[in-house]
Amino acid sequence: MARSNHARMHLLGAWAIAGIRRSKSVLKGVAASHLAGVLALVAVGLALACLIVTRGLARGLAEEAPLTALMFRSTEPGALVALASAPFKPEKAAAPAGGAEKAALPIGAEVGAQAKSAVAADPLNARAFVILGLLAERAGDKAGALKFMRAAARRSLHESGALMWLMRSTFESKDYESAIFHADALLRSRYDLVGEAMPTLAAFAENADERGRLVALLAANPYWRLNFFSLLPTHIKDARTPLKLMAALRDTPAPPTPDELGKYLSFLIGKRFYELAYYTWLQFLPPHQLASVGLLFNGGFEEAIPDSPFNWTLEAGAGATVDVAQRPDQREQRALFLKLGPGRVNFEVKQILVLAPASYKLGGKWKGAISGSRGVFWRVLCLNAKEATVLGESPMMIGEAADWTDFSLSFIVPASGCRAQVLHLEPAARSPSEQLMSGSVWFDDLRLVREAETGPPTLWPGFTSEELEP
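^ that's the sequence the OP posted. Answer follows.
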């Protein structure tokens, strides 16, 4: 029995030792397998990191150093497009500013190959299609150019090169619906390109049959509209074209703004189209103001004073405050108020007039106190004369007028050479030393009446009522 138990114990010990040895062997195998897996993962990670770094470097260098970018990735679309774009850039003909790398940019047949390679590497690369379109245009393949440009626009409505090309091309081919669509798409994403789009937009504006398409675009009040109206006068043949657009917008939810109208009026006055400017201003006055229009507008200073040359323009210079305020004696009424000095004073209050040849009389009231060697006065001058021609001056306001005091001046608008006039209130100084003054003054109830004709009656020289209709 003892021997039997001993044998059993010996067998169990041998079995345990064998199990331990097998376990060590298995653990060694597992450890080796795990190490191999870790090494494989590290290798994959390094490969991915290398790929990311090289692609990132290639992408980052694509614009400024395309040849270097291609050393990191031979199929980098951005670099291929940059190389292919070079011959179409304006600076290509000038000395390269970027060193030898830019000087080495290829031209000719290689450009097409690079653009095609870019498309193969990135089929959604809109710029590559633009280059292919430009190459087709250079080769005289108009149909091919149109196909590639449309492909570029389909891939991205932010590809301004394609949209600009399509806008111009479709307008020239009289596909006006496509032209206005591409103009809208272009300026929605690149409103800073409104200047480059102006020749086409101005052509729409001057095409009576197609102007409505542009009006519909402007009626949506896009944020490039003010720039459009600012630039339009320099791109048109007929000075009345902006008026026709504005008249069409008048009854829309986005009628012409004071800024848009003001820029057009400034253009017309700068070109001495005084009659057209005055007519345009009248078209956009509110009915209650239009009913009160006379030879002088807003002589009682009761209406608001926007930035309009045919209303009052108030310019306060050094040492002066110019404003329209409540009258101290009648709080429900307003009047022109000036606070002057003490010291050297400079200011201007003015309104442009469009008066037919005749004799006129300006009257009004003033009160206040002005101290100095000279005070202030009203003057009427011819606006369109080569040299300032004074038609009349009021007596100088100086000293004290405790109560409202009448003043007047008479003048004659000659039969020729004075199509527009300007009424000024300004210091009566003849030298800088005479600008020294102090005090305050009020003006109100200005009236302008015609006394007698001095020439044949006329609407406005050079215009008929039919020609002025928008």
